[in-house]
């Protein structure tokens, strides 16, 4: 076992243990009684249900993580990576197609192994707590559509990356970085119009008071909208959400139909004010910029380690290759990725506070607070998550912290 194997094993162990400890403390933070702030929204039965939901999801998450780690270690130390490599090499497909076959088989195998967990999560856990609206047909069609998109969009991108590192002698990492950056930017424009509608129906919000109020608010903050859409989120779940997509003249607001059904017009406008706040504060651009820089650093490091024989020896490989190197480097990069993830979660929580403050300053506090309370109840959110769990896993601040911050914000 060489230094590469040790680094990867230690990282896998630390990641699993950190999340296990966070889960343990998060479960211990339950059953503290309903926070007074939510006494008018939750009854005892609903609050107890939210506690049970958190417990079930947490324990299921631990089981899933343990299974995935065990499968990876067994496959690794049984020489599975080398066995698969020798298999696909025997097909004599050429460097790029061999790489696509190798990575594709690993991705499909992992998807098949995770399928029982996905089925149980959707049709047992989510069903038990009243969230699931997904039919078996929709579930299967989502899988097939996802696979088709992975082949049509991910396949050419992966082939390009493999080609750069296989055939370009100098600065392959730079070409790969440029390709991924262009791909990411194009997807930002393409997704709202052509990709998202593959999975959900986007219907323009009909004329009425809600549309007028949204338009009036958008005009008041100088935010031009191409369209306001309602998507059929209820086809899959009773949970609610809203999001903002697009750039420039193609900005869109999307509301889940469950959100529209369960909230007042004022609460819906407040939610949209929060989403517009992200745009006005340039959070989307900042996140994209950070992601692009991070990708460039990753490809630069990849170019350094791709020819390290020790990386392949750590996985018992008889021959080195760009496609296997991508997989192994992904695991070697995990310590950096773990740290970056924590920093990005922290930054994301900061952005959420800023978007809340924007909504409170430009619209109103109470509708935003009301929306947060209703969303928490409808989604059975954990109202008292442990700080360490929040640090590792939350992209949004706990709802009580958000409400306190909104109440403390001074308009203007």
UniProtKB/TrEMBL annotation:
Cofactor binding comment, as recorded: Binds 1 zinc ion per subunit.
CDD domains (UniProt xref): M48A_Zmpste24p_like
Domain Peptidase M48: 206-408
InterPro entries, sorted: CAXX_Prtase_1, Peptidase_M48, Peptidase_M48_N
Keywords carried by this UniProt record: Endoplasmic reticulum, Hydrolase, Membrane, Metal-binding, Metalloprotease, Protease, Transmembrane, Transmembrane helix, Zinc
Keyword Endoplasmic reticulum included in the entry's annotation: yes
Coiled coil residues, start to end: none
Domain of life (superkingdom): Bacteria
Membrane protein topology class: Multi-pass membrane protein
A molecular-function term among this protein's GO annotations: metal ion binding
Pfam families referenced in this protein's UniProt entry, alphabetically: Peptidase_M48 (PF01435), Peptidase_M48_N (PF16491)
Organism from which the protein derives: Fodinibius sediminis
Protein name: STE24 endopeptidase
Protein family: Belongs to the peptidase M48 family.
Residue stretches making up the CAAX prenyl protease 1 N-terminal domain: 28-201
Cofactors required: Zn(2+)
Residues annotated as catalytic: 275, 356
């Amino acid at each position: 076992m060489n230094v590469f194997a040790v680094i990867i094993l230690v990282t896998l162990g630390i990641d699993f243990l950190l999340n296990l400890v966070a889960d343990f403390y998060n479960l211990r933070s339950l059953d503290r009684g309903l926070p007074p702030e939510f006494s008018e929204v939750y009854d005892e039965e609903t609050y107890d249900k939210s506690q049970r939901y958190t417990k079930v999801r947490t324990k299921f998450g631990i089981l899933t993580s343990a299974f995935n780690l065990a499968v990876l270690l067994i496959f690794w130390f049984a020489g599975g990576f080398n066995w698969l490599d020798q298999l696909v090499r025997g097909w004599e497909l050429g460097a790029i197609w061999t790489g696509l076959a190798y990575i594709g088989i690993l991705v499909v195998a992992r998807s098949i192994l995770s399928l029982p967990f996905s089925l149980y999560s959707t049709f047992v856990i989510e069903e038990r707590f009243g969230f699931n609206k997904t039919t078996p047909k929709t579930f299967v069609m989502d899988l097939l559509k996802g696979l088709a998109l992975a082949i049509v969009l991910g396949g050419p991108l992966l082939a390009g990356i493999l080609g750069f590192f296989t055939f370009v002698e100098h600065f392959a990492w730079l070409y790969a970085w440029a390709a991924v950056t262009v791909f990411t930017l194009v997807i930002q424009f393409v997704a709202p119009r052509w990709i998202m509608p593959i999975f959900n129906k986007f219907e323009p919000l009909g004329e009425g008071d809600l549309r007028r109020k949204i338009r009036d608010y958008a005009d008041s903050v100088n935010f031009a909208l191409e369209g306001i859409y309602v998507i059929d989120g209820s086809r899959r779940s009773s949970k609610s959400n809203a999001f903002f997509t697009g750039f420039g003249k193609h900005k869109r607001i999307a509301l889940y139909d469950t959100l529209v059904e369960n909230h007042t017009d004022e609460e819906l406008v407040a939610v949209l004010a929060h989403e517009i706040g992200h745009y006005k504060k340039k959070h989307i651009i900042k996140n994209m910029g950070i992601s692009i820089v991070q990708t460039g650093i990753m490809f630069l490091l990849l170019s350094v380690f791709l020819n390290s024989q020790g990386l392949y020896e750590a996985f018992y490989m008889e021959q080195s290759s760009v496609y296997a190197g991508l997989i192994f480097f992904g695991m070697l990069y995990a310590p950096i990725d773990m740290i970056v993830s924590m920093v990005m979660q922290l930054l994301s929580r900061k952005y959420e506070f800023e978007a809340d403050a924007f909504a409170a300053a430009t619209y109103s506090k109470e509708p935003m607070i009301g929306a947060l309370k209703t969303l928490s109840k409808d989604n059975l959110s954990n109202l008292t998550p442990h700080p360490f769990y929040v640090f590792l896993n939350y992209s949004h601040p706990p709802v009580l912290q958000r409400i306190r911050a909104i109440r403390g914000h001074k308009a203007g």
